[in-house]
User: What shape does this take?
Amino acid sequence: MEEEEASFFRKTQRPSSRASQYERIVRLSTPRTRSRSSQEAGPPHTTQCESNCPIWHVDPRLKTAVVTLRLLQLSSPKLNHPDFQSNRQSVESIASFAHKSAQISQRLVQLSLPRLKQSNICSDLGRPEETIWTVPRAAARATTSARIEALATPKQLSKHYIPPKEPEWSRRNVQSI
Assistant: This one.
C-alpha cells in the first residue's frame, strides 16, 4: 500500500523491463473516462482528480511532518525595528469651511465634461447603394495603371491544386443503427 502511494507521487517512473514498458504504453494509450455527471451519486473528492481541482493534493508523508521551532520562527512576519520612525506626514487632509461649502458653477460643470467631436470621416447610414465613406473627387476621377490592377488581382491557386471532394452518401455506406 505504501509502495503504491510512493510511486503515485513520483514525478517520473522508469520502467525496468519490456513488460513494464508495454504495460505503461497500454495505460497511456487508453482514453480517460469522462467524469461523472453531477446528478450521479459519488464521492465529492477522489485522489485521482484532474489538475483543475480546487483541493490541493498533499503527500500523506507531509501531513505527519513535525513543526520545529525554526519553522515557526521562519513563518513569523518580519517586524520593524523598535527605533524606526516613519517620515510620512499625516494622511488626513484639512479642508476649510469655505472649501466644504463651495458651490459649483454651470461653467465648471460644462468644462468638466469631455468634448464631443463631430466626425467628418464617416457619414450617417443611408441607402445600401450609397457609400459610407466620403470619397474625394480626385480619387473618384483617378485612373489606375496596369501595375496597380495587377497588384489588386487576387492570388491564383496553384495549377496542381485539387479541391477537396464532397462526401458522397449512399445506402450501402450507411450502417443500420
The chain has eight helices and no strands. Residues 38-42 have pLDDT under 50 and may be disordered. The two ends are 46 Å apart (CA to CA). Helices lie at 2-8, 18-29, 60-63, 69-75, 97-100, 106-112, 137-141, 146-152.
